[in-house]
Amino acid sequence: MSPESKKLFNIIILGISFMFIFTAFQTCGNIAQTVITNLNNTDFHGSGYTSMSIIYGVFSASNLISPSVVAIVGPQLSMVVSGVFYSLYIAVFIQPATWAFYTASVFIGIAAAVLWTAQGNCLTVNSNENTIGRNSGVFWALLQSSLFFGNLYIYFAWQGKTRISESDRRTVFIALTVISLVGTVLFFLIRKHEDTQTPGEEDSTNEILGDNSSAKAKMTRAVAAFKKSIKLSLTKEILLLSVTTAYTGLELTFFSGVYGTCIGAVNRFGSEEKSLIGLSGIFIGIGEILGGGIFGLLSKNNRFGRNPVVMLGIIVHFIAFYLIFFNMPNDAPIAPMEGTDHVAYMAPSKEVAVLCSFLLGLGDSCFNTQLLSILGFLYSEDSAPAFAIFKFVQSICAAVAYFYSNYFLLQWQLLIMVVVGFFGTITFFTVEWEAAAALAARGSDYSSI
């Protein structure tokens, strides 16, 4: 197998592994609050929103040390161990206990930081400036296939149910735990390749599959990775991209947790309200897969760079927010177990709700594929710290969003995303224009990015 074929194989295995793990985790996140609402008349008194807020809060803090962990342990083992913690979190729902639920939330926050730092590093080391766009799209399309498969099961399994029984819950979460473990095992198929760095680059954190023999060398790499993270976080490009990244954290919270809860709380959807959560997740997944696939395949022929894709993403999201504002009752995110009988500015429409799910997924893929691409392009030599900063900002904003989702009406949540999304698009454009100018100065073809 040629070096390029081996790198593409690694990207595909990386994407498939994440697809399995996040089939389990994203489905879990999408139905967690609904399941927990049905548990709160028992001894269990947890909150899905609070759990996700803990996860993303710990996730953000852990990104400060995750490059050092990856530098010491290596990306493959980092992803395997992280995958195990994802599986343990999902397994908690088989027999829920409040203390175990919140404890697992802390551990999965740490694991997530390590997992995504290792993923970004692995993506970058298996790409170059000509393939980073394609590989980002391929990875994203495979990853977001997870939304399709898990939610397809929820749609059919919960068809016509207004209450989730103990048997229903256990069956779902045993299956999701097994699926997560399968994805974890697949990380072992990622093939190592020869380190191609020059002798003067020993401390570069992109040597993720290199020699980890010396304990002193490991510590040196760990310290260097931490210092590099702090240094990069203060650069102009990272600060500008942080606004865009902040928006992806806010809308991630909305489409992966809040919107499904809103749909499940609308009593006017009748007996289909619970299964409609699964259908919503399926169409979010279709939007994500379509976006990742198209933008990955077209990246080689895109003469205008990343900005048109990001522009498409913000337009699609603004349309979705507008329709959701008209279709969903304002109190849907914080409705009690009995749901809400309120109506927004139109009678709640299942078709509009599902269309909005598709638009949310498509817009999200626009932003994330282009952020992965530009980070891999700008920081090919410092990928672990760069992706750690990306996930730090994204996760801390997601944590804040999950926290205020316990209290804010729908209209205020939508307004926050509109404002941050607008400014995030402008800052992305600024960085992309500078990247294009730098590429032109080197005599490279802009369409290659």
UniProtKB/TrEMBL annotation:
Transmembrane segment boundaries: 7-26, 46-65, 100-118, 138-158, 170-190, 238-256, 276-297, 309-328, 386-404, 410-431
Compartments where found: Membrane
Family to which this protein belongs: Belongs to the unc-93 family.
Protein origin, superkingdom: Eukaryota
Family annotation (SUPFAM superfamilies): MFS general substrate transporter
Membrane topology: Multi-pass membrane protein
Record has Transmembrane helix as a keyword: yes
Pfam family, one: UNC-93
Name of the protein this chain belongs to: UNC93-like protein MFSD11
The keyword Transmembrane helix belongs to this UniProt entry's keyword annotation: yes
Any GO CC annotation of this UniProt entry: membrane
Alphabetically ordered keywords of this record: Glycoprotein, Membrane, Transmembrane, Transmembrane helix
Listed InterPro entries: Ion_channel_UNC-93 (IPR010291), MFS_trans_sf (IPR036259), UNC-93-like_regulator (IPR051617)
